[in-house]
Specification:
CATH architecture of the largest domain: 2-Layer Sandwich
Radius of gyration: 27 Å
CATH class of the largest domain: Alpha Beta
Order of helices and strands: HHEEHHEEEEHEEEHH
CATH topology of the largest domain: Ribosomal Protein S5, domain 2
Distance between the termini: 75 Å
Mean pLDDT: 83
Strand order of the largest sheet: 3-4-7-5-6
Helix content: 25-40%
Number of domains: 2
Number of strands: 9
Strand content: 15-25%
Shape: globular
Structural class: alpha+beta
């Protein structure tokens, strides 16, 4: 992409430095790549040899997550599915992946698609974080990918000028059902946590320190140091 907004001076002035903008581009393409796994994505900064985002066409969404976010994220994910009935008062289907208690991060990653459109939902994000607050260590956040399908007329996109934040019809019922399913999955799979053990070689350093701490008795005057 070159000369972006070249004829829109006001819009060009709102652009931040290139490093921040490129980071946002990488984040956006990463989210799109794991949802549209039937499309290959590649993003490389000008002059760089290696692509920061690269995903091949895959039949498995988990494989797409693995190629974009890494093996450590993919192996910590649990599949979740929620399908509402007619008696619930709202019609929707949700499928996705949520991280287990072995996943540790400092920031919540919520990749949310509603009717194949990348959006944000603050209420759903808060509900998921409440579930994980009792599971993850303090200050650790989860990784969540969700794809929700529901009637188009049940989605209100006019609550924010950017159209990213959405509100849903019967939102409380939907969020409660999703929250309960995530909590159930975590309870059934997170009975134990995995910790990586790191071995520390301290024997040699201990011997060196003990030798240096041993006091050396002075020789009597006139006596030579014995040869070894």
């Amino acid at each position: 992409v070159e000369n972006l907004f070249y004829n829109m001076i006001a819009r060009r002035k709102t652009l931040q430095n290139s490093a921040d903008d490129y980071g946002k581009i990488v984040d956006l393409l990463s989210r799109m790549a794991i949802h549209h796994n039937n499309v290959s994505f590649s993003c490389r900064k000008h002059g760089a040899v290696k692509a920061d985002v690269h995903s091949a066409v895959s039949s498995s969404r988990l494989d797409s997550i693995r190629s974009v976010y890494g093996v450590s994220v993919a192996k910590s994910l649990i599949k979740v599915e929620v399908s509402s009935g007619e008696s619930s008062g709202c019609a929707f289907d949700m499928e996705g992946f949520v991280s287990n208690s072995n996943y540790v991060a400092k920031k919540t990653i919520l990749v949310l698609f509603i009717n194949d459109r990348l959006v944000e939902c603050s209420a759903l994000k808060r509900a998921v974080e409440i579930v994980y607050a009792a599971t993850l260590p303090k200050a650790s956040k989860p990784f969540v990918y969700m794809s929700i399908n529901l009637p188009r007329e049940h989605v209100d996109i006019n609550i924010h000028p950017t159209k990213k934040e959405v509100s849903l019809l019967n939102q409380e019922i939907m969020i409660d059902m999703i929250q309960s399913e995530v909590e159930l999955k975590l309870r059934n799979t997170n009975d134990t946590r995995t910790f990586q053990e790191q071995k520390v070689e301290y024997i040699q350093s201990t011997l060196k320190s003990s030798k240096s701490d041993t006091p050396v008795s002075p020789l009597p005057s006139g006596q030579k140091t014995p040869k070894v």
